[in-house]
Design goal:
Blueprint lengths: L1 H13 L13 H32 L8 H24 L11 H26 L3 H6 L2 H27 L7
Length: 173
């Protein structure tokens, strides 16, 4: 589940990257459609993974949310759910109850908050690499390689959003 969640999420975000999009030459509307399909799939994978872990801990009479990884995992699922709702607002910005922000501002807020949610997801994954189970069952090079991969992916996403929205001159769309 973690792999599918992470893969879907990073692919959905990188659809908009001019350097690494899988569908580089397609119109933005098509990229948006693929983005929400992949992100919805990632959200479902996150919910299923969370439910499976919760159920397994309940079956084995283990405590819930006792580790940093568990607490951050729950927080990540909540943030991803909120971010998904915000994405629906960006997609359907004309609905009267959605937002008082302009569509451009909503897109920018969605991109920035989405990159922060992705960063939290990477931190959660990184904390999982230091769990007792993972450190006992994986070679230290796998632990540190996995951690470096998370840091690299978070850097790519944060850089993409900053390039798209942070380097713009005021008044430019």
């Amino acid at each position: 589940m973690v792999f599918s969640f992470g893969f879907l999420m990073i692919e959905a975000i990188l659809l908009f990257s001019p350097q690494s999009s899988l569908i580089l030459s397609t119109p933005r509307a098509t990229k948006v459609k693929f983005h929400w399909i992949l992100q919805t799939s990632a959200w479902i994978a996150a919910l299923l993974g969370f439910a499976a872990i919760y159920y397994n801990k309940t079956l084995n009479n283990k405590p819930h949310f006792k580790s940093w990884h568990g607490i951050m995992g729950f927080s990540t699922v909540v943030l991803i759910s909120l971010q998904s709702l915000q994405g629906v607002g960006v997609l359907y910005y004309k609905l009267p109850f959605v937002s008082k922000l302009k569509p451009r501002q909503m897109k920018q807020l969605h991109a920035v908050s989405g990159s922060l949610v992705f960063l939290v997801a990477c931190i959660t994954l990184g904390l999982g690499f230091y769990s007792n189970w993972f450190t006992k069952n994986a070679h230290f090079t796998v632990v540190y390689g996995s951690l470096l991969s998370c840091i690299a992916l978070a850097g790519v996403v944060m850089g993409q959003v900053y390039t798209e929205y942070g380097l713009r001159k005021p008044g430019r769309t």
